[in-house]
What does this fold into?
Amino acid sequence: MRNDVTRFGENAGKIWSALNEQGDAVDEKTLMKLTNLSNQELYAAIGWLARENKIRKEDKKGYRLGNTNLTEEVGTVAGRIWKILDIWGEADIETIRKLAGSRDEEIYAAIGWLAREGKIQVDETQTYRLK
It folds into this structure.
């Protein structure tokens, strides 16, 4: 059985393939349609790709392949989440949302970033903890 962290990487591959096929910037709604990913899955995969330095956000156009410009945005929230989990030991998404003070998209992207770094795990109850 695949775990959620493995699925984040697989979903990142779906986004990479879709962006590679399109060749131009693609907005979130179109990416979700092309990849059949939910909003949460999309952003976790974007965070994964941002950590790999493979995706960039183009103002009002969406995402495209290229050196990332998301390091500050996603990396900062990833640092907050890492600190929350370091202190609390574990937390569900609702607790992370409250303590991080960030939007869902930022939180899921940061979780994808941490997953790519191999620093986070999630169990069947959707509880996150550091590895």
Notes: Residues 1-131 form one domain. The chain has a mean pLDDT of 92.
